[in-house]
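Quick review question:
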């Protein structure tokens, strides 16, 4: 079972890490940030990473002095005498060194838990869900800053919070921090113990990461850990339109607050006749917003409710919702060539995200799909493809699976790389239509990450245009 509840430890805040022997598993951004924070507070630090030293030179240079480093493997010797393990989100619970440490009773926490223990009683606003986390987190950050709050924002959005806390909370600047706003993944939630946000948001649940979890139920249980320590004075924001998420309100001690696209009387933030309302007060109409797409309206509703509960004024809500254009690689408009419009949704790494993006278009879509398989069931796309998608262009490691699962639903064309994908999709979409990159898969079979995949897509579109 993910996260052994029997594991207890006596570390309640950052001061308790002095002279403790801590092993950090994974030398990525979160591992570096954890090492920097722990070093400042007197911990004895070891780090282990399976990658070769030649791949980690830049990361190693960012570490504080006195850290013991192991590369190229995870050896059992690194656990000897260890008081605590801080695990990076990319390290799964079935990793051999994690299993061995758990068998020895060594406490294991995530970098997010370390950041929480280090945050000096600053209230957290934590955002999770399958899709929309980064956009919602960014909106909350912008609204609260516009409202005059001092905010630190990071987590799964790409900025490790341990580093932000080290540089801001313990920097000696004397400046207050009103809230920490965090995007939290299921991976980060696996190894929390005392993590307790003041406000938690769960946006939606659709199948994802089934290459890591045994089934959807285990994935849901990982997400529910966000409210495991919340109490009656805390606030849990839930999507009323998602039955799995809505039911979580009965599982938490926190007070549930709902948002809804469908004008529900149970929702504090809702959409009525193309206008967002908060507690019955008009906030902004969809025509006034730059942000487009069904899923982004949900994100805006969640961010509106979270920011309102945190104390944002109505003018700050309105102004940011009118100005915000969205994030890179999230249904991002790229260009139009001969009446064919190109959209980059490279962050759409699961089937739920693809569905949300497809719902933003009525017809004439050529969908670029594929990458590293995460256990996706592409047949679940069938109802959203029919009448809307002209063809699917399949690339990457799981293209054969896409062909097998969708060949009876739509024409599927296999390609070798992104250049061929863009060119074939353009030819099929003409004389007018939409080319949508929404892969429904991870990117690591062909790219460094979803950002790299999105940049390559944009470059190929510009090359096609002659730019």
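Suggested answer, residue by residue:
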């Amino acid at each position: 079972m993910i996260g052994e509840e029997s594991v207890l430890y006596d570390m309640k805040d950052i001061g308790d890490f002095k002279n403790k022997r801590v092993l950090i598993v994974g030398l990525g951004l979160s591992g570096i940030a954890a090492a920097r924070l722990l070093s400042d507070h007197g911990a004895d630090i070891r780090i282990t990473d399976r990658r070769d030293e030649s791949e980690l030179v830049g990361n190693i240079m960012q570490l504080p002095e006195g850290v013991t480093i192991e590369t190229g493997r995870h050896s059992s010797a690194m656990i000897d005498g260890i008081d605590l393990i801080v695990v990076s989100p990319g390290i799964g619970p079935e990793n051999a060194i994690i299993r061995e440490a758990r068998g020895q009773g060594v406490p294991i926490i995530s970098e997010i838990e370390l950041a929480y223990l280090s945050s000096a009683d600053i209230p957290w606003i934590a955002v999770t869900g399958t899709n929309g986390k980064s956009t919602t987190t960014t909106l909350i950050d912008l609204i609260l800053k516009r409202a005059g709050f001092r905010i630190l924002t990071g987590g799964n959005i790409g900025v490790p919070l341990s580093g932000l806390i080290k540089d801001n909370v313990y920097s000696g600047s004397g400046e207050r921090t009103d809230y920490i706003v965090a995007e939290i993944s299921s991976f980060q939630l696996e190894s929390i113990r005392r993590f307790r946000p003041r406000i938690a948001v769960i946006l939606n649940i659709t199948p994802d990461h089934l290459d890591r979890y045994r089934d959807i139920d285990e994935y849901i249980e990982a997400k529910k850990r966000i409210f495991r320590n919340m109490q009656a004075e805390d606030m849990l924001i839930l999507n009323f339109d998602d039955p799995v998420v809505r039911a979580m309100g009965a599982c938490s001690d926190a007070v549930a607050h709902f948002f809804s696209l469908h004008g529900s009387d149970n929702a504090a933030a809702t959409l009525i006749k193309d206008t967002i309302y908060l507690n019955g007060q008009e906030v902004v109409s969809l025509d006034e917003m730059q942000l487009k797409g069904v899923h982004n309206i949900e994100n805006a509703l969640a961010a509106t409710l979270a920011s309102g509960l945190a104390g944002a004024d109505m003018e700050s809500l309105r102004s940011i919702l009118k100005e915000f254009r969205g994030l890179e690689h999230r249904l991002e408009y790229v260009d139009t060539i001969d009446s064919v419009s190109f959209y980059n949704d490279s962050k759409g790494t699961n089937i739920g995200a693809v569905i949300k993006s497809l719902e933003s278009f009525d017809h004439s879509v050529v969908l670029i799909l594929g990458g590293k398989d995460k256990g996706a069931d592409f047949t679940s796309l069938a109802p959203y493809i029919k009448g809307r998608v002209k063809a699917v262009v399949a690339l990457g490691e799981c293209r054969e699976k896409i062909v097998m699962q969708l060949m009876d639903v739509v024409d599927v064309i296999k390609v070798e790389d992104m250049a061929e994908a863009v060119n074939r999709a353009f030819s099929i979409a003409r004389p007018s239509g939409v080319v949508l990159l929404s892969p429904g898969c991870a990117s690591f079979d062909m790219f460094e990450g979803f950002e790299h995949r999105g940049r390559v897509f944009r470059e190929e579109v510009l090359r096609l245009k002659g730019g």
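Why it works: The chain has three domains: 18-106, 114-323, 332-465. Residues 114-323 form a domain with the UDP-N-acetylmuramoyl-L-alanine:D-glutamate ligase fold (CATH 3.40.1190.10).
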